[in-house]
Amino acid sequence: MTSFHFRFESLLVLQRQQRNELIRELTETHTAINDTQEKIDHLQQQRDELRSAAAGRFATDVHISVDRLRHEARYDRQLADDQDTLGSTRKQLEAELEQRRERLIEAEAEVKRLERLREKQSVAYNQLQLQREQATADERTIARMIHSRR
């Protein structure tokens, strides 16, 4: 009895590799989004600390330096601009994540379709082999019966 050979096995292997690559890319995108969010949070923390320090000085200092206020305002604006830039990057990454997620769903569906086809063909092959073996056994039995009657 010969063993079953799925003729689309190489295609199935390629589809699995593509699916695994998409999973890796999806993971990388998740990591990039998380890293970007951490940077945004860190910038927000810096802005909060800057404002808190300025508020503390306003409460205790009698003399307020205009140059220092301008410097802190520029620094706060720079932090805000950096946050905006990172926010845009995060939105782009989220859009990319969604596209990759959709491609992964399609790739997974293709792998499952090929696996179902392989399973169906394997079952059909095994049934055909069983029928052939049964026919061969029946022929032998008939031949023995004919031979024993002579």
UniProtKB/TrEMBL annotation:
Q: Which UniProt keywords apply?
A: Bacterial flagellum biogenesis, Bacterial flagellum protein export, Cell membrane, Cell projection, Chemotaxis, Cilium, Coiled coil, Flagellum, Membrane, Protein transport, Transport
Recorded topology in the membrane: Peripheral membrane protein
* Family matches, as InterPro entries: Flag_assembly_chemotaxis_eff (IPR053716), Flagell_FliJ (IPR012823)
**Which GO cellular component does the record give, naming just one?**
plasma membrane
Q: Which family does it belong to?
A: Belongs to the FliJ family.
Any one Gene Ontology BP term: chemotaxis
Quote the protein name from its UniProt record: Flagellar FliJ protein
Coiled-coil residues: 26-53, 90-134
**Gene3D superfamilies, per database record:** 1.10.287.1700
Subcellular location(s) of the protein: Cell membrane
Kindly name one Pfam family recorded for this protein: FliJ
State the species of origin.
Answer: Allorhodopirellula heiligendammensis
